[in-house]
């Protein structure tokens, strides 16, 4: 037991620093991926609600395709496929041999793309929950479209979307573990390395699990508080129970 | 795109489909049984409910990949286990993958089941009691069928997500569709073509399952549609 504490601690023998850095990398990848997903999701939600027919169709296809492919394959496509494309381009310019690309960038983009499909649905649902009277009132007062989006639509839709976006954030954290296949030293990769070199796999994978659990639990609480704050002054309305 | 290459890759990847399907079917059936047990436990006592909640919290709060690693690599840390009768089984990547997928699926399915059970109206239960049904009969004839119908859309999503999750088994050396695709890429270096072929296989599979679930939803809600005469009662 004491040995376990030494190994997980911050002393010279301990892996504490490595695991802490790795945990922060997990957070960073997740944040980038979530942001990508939010941008993509907003664009797709707009395309589905008010976009021209061609864009609406494209957004629908994107949603169906991304929901039908394993996350791991999407990451492989971005990482190995991206490397293939970059290498081909570099070879055109006289470079020889394969070119490495960043696992962080490929992983964030891949998970962002996966999450974007789900976030689009959350945001679209939230938009449709806005009472049409508010939108009419905004239009009657002569608001321009961008002002209306900024002052009326976004604040109301985000409030309704908060629980759904919170769920998406939790999924993104868990999906970020898959980025370890690119060699990026995030939590899962770090505990794998530690498990190998100490020959204590159970201890370190358990510690890795605890890190993820800590991140998901704390961010769950943050979202709960945000929801509570956003719902102040509203009649009690439970979204999604 | 090189069509001849793609035509050659497809059959190679399809060879992994039986393994993908067997992983999905086994872990979904095991997961469903475990989820029912968890629901029973939750209804049995306060302590049981606490355990079920804790189980769901742990398995939904951590990535599936770390659960697979914990079982596949982690268990080897215990000499007692390595020398036990179970070891020939627990050494197998297939067994470990199914075990992890099953335990993970149980957590999600038990939450879906909970939602379905909550939606069974108290009127239906009262009616069953008044008719003199015993508890097991009521569970079998009234509560579970109603809960199942209510939970079907969410459960359909869980089935497709498990089918997709089987791709993680490739990380512990199993040669299902994704594993074969990885092997093919390391030989041909044509990542985009190969992984896109694999993606098409999963997409078709998931689309078929989604259709099937929709069809089942329609079948199980005939009382809501005028097309009752389709099935002679």
UniProtKB/TrEMBL annotation, chain A:
Keywords: Cell inner membrane, Cell membrane, Membrane, Transmembrane, Transmembrane helix, Transport
This protein's name: Octopine/nopaline transport system permease protein
Single GO molecular function: transmembrane transporter activity
Entry's localization field: Cell inner membrane; Cell membrane
Keyword Cell inner membrane: yes
Span of domain ABC transmembrane type-1: 23-223
Ribonucleoprotein recorded as keyword: no
Similarity comment: family membership: Belongs to the binding-protein-dependent transport system permease family. HisMQ subfamily.
Transmembrane segments: 20-47, 59-79, 202-223
InterPro entries: AA_ABC_transptr_permease_3TM (IPR010065), ABC_transp_permease_HisMQ (IPR051613), MetI-like (IPR000515), MetI-like_sf (IPR035906)
Superkingdom as given in the UniProt entry: Bacteria
Assigned GO CC terms: ATP-binding cassette (ABC) transporter complex
Protein's membrane topology: Multi-pass membrane protein
Main localization of the protein described in the UniProt heading: membrane
TrEMBL record, chain B:
CDD domains registered for this protein in UniProt: TM_PBP2
Top-rank taxon, per record: Bacteria
Domain ABC transmembrane type-1 intervals: 17-213
Keyword Ion transport attributed: no
SUPFAM superfamilies reported in the protein's UniProt record: MetI-like
Pfam family of the protein (one): BPD_transp_1
Keywords: Cell inner membrane, Cell membrane, Membrane, Transmembrane, Transmembrane helix, Transport
Residues spanning the membrane: 55-75, 194-216
Membrane topology type: Multi-pass membrane protein
GO terms, biological process: amino acid transport
Main location per the UniProt record: membrane
Cell inner membrane keyword on record: yes
Compartments, as annotated in UniProt: Cell inner membrane; Cell membrane
GO cellular component assignments: ATP-binding cassette (ABC) transporter complex
GO molecular-function term, one example from the UniProt record: transmembrane transporter activity
PROSITE patterns referenced in this protein's UniProt entry, alphabetically: ABC_TM1
Record family assignment: Belongs to the binding-protein-dependent transport system permease family. HisMQ subfamily.
The protein's name: Octopine/nopaline transport system permease protein
Species whose genome carries this gene: Bosea psychrotolerans
